Amino acid sequence: MSKIEVNQISSQCGSTLTIGQSGDTVTLASGATQSGFGRTGTVDWDTTAKTASFTAVSGNGYFVNTTSTAITVTLPAGSAGSIVSLKDYASTWNTNSVTLTPNGTDKINGTNADAALATQDQSVTLVYVDSTKGWRAVQDSTSDVTGFIPVVATGGTITTCGDYKIHTFTGPGTFCVSSLSGNPTYNNVDYIVVAGGGAGGHRHGSGGGAGGFRESHCSTTSGCYTASPLASSTSLPISVTGYPITVGAGAGSTSFPPNQTGASGSNSVFSTITSAGGGGGGTNCQAGTNGGSGGGGGADNLPTSVGSGNTPPVSPPQGNPGGVASYAPVHYGMGGGGGATAAGGTGSPNVGGNGGAGATTSISGSPTAYAGGGGASVYEGGTSGTGGTGGGGTGTIGGPAPNQANGTDGTANTGGGGGGGERGVPQDIGRAGGSGIVIIRYKYQ
After folding, report:
1. CA–CA dist 356, 318 (Å, integer)
2. Structural domain harbouring 376
3. pTM of the model
4. Per residue in 208-233, pLDDT tens?
5. What would the DSSP string read from start to end of 257-272?
């Protein structure tokens, strides 16, 4: 074997230099590197499958195994001609996707954002073109590769908060999903579902219970915001379909006949999530009713006569029981309606029980309270119960003038319970519960 040692080979004439003959293989020695030749559009495949997140090297191809978990592949710093290939090793990218992350300010198809590979058995080759487009897919066996692909949906009143879209339903409608994200991680939504509040009882009336309150919050799904203490960490998966939305009505006011227990609010529904209407407030010798939160107990009733909350039971609980009324022979103070985070207050002579506190969440982009219990009435002067934070109505002061004062309804679209009614026209009326609300939030860019 001959050996030639030179520092430079130049053509004798012209601008073309040929190394070897047709059919020959030109090989670089082990450990040697080349410069100036560029690549021919192919890669050297690493046949040890990747099972965890890693940073790719230009010129290499990788088999990526997402059988156990999703994997993030960080692309190398881009320079013109850089090339990387990826292949779904176990045909599981549709279950656990691959997230492509550009280096620093580099772009993928013109966008400085992650891209998703989420198609079963996909293979893709990416070449870095320039700073305008960055990495471009030049070969893709199944689908286009681009920046973040959002969920597309309609329905309700739509607002945005940063990278997140919010659909608010104050009445019936449809949350209609027409397209899913390219990354299954983002094909989930967070929500609050609040039912209609119960009405306050009529005459010696306790406060109505708040509508049931249910919430989810996962920061990956809908961003970092302050959720209520009742929020589940499990978001709701969605598919391409229409989801009918039911927003529960608040129970109407109660007036005649005397001693009438308040009506219960109506349920609110989104997909598999149902929140129960608030229980109606009790009256003289009439128990409060069960519901998302329970109605308070009426006068002369045993403590067991208060309405139970979280009925039917769910976890985390959707509400609390109503409060107990006093047993004094005069100057009755009735029990407050239950709220999302607290039971209704206990009545005492000359003082009506306050409504239980609701729950505060910033899912809409600003902190808002929902599902407060209704305040209870008081007879022959004194202080009626205040509504719980989250739309609960105020109880009535009854009896001879000048002690009379009307209570208030629960606030619309909060699920607040209505205030309790008392003797003395027109103070007899047990006030209406507030209607519910449904809010849906997800990442859209």
Report:
1. 13
2. 149-445
3. 0.71
4. 999 999 999 999 899 999 999 999 99
5. SSSBPPPPPPPEEETT
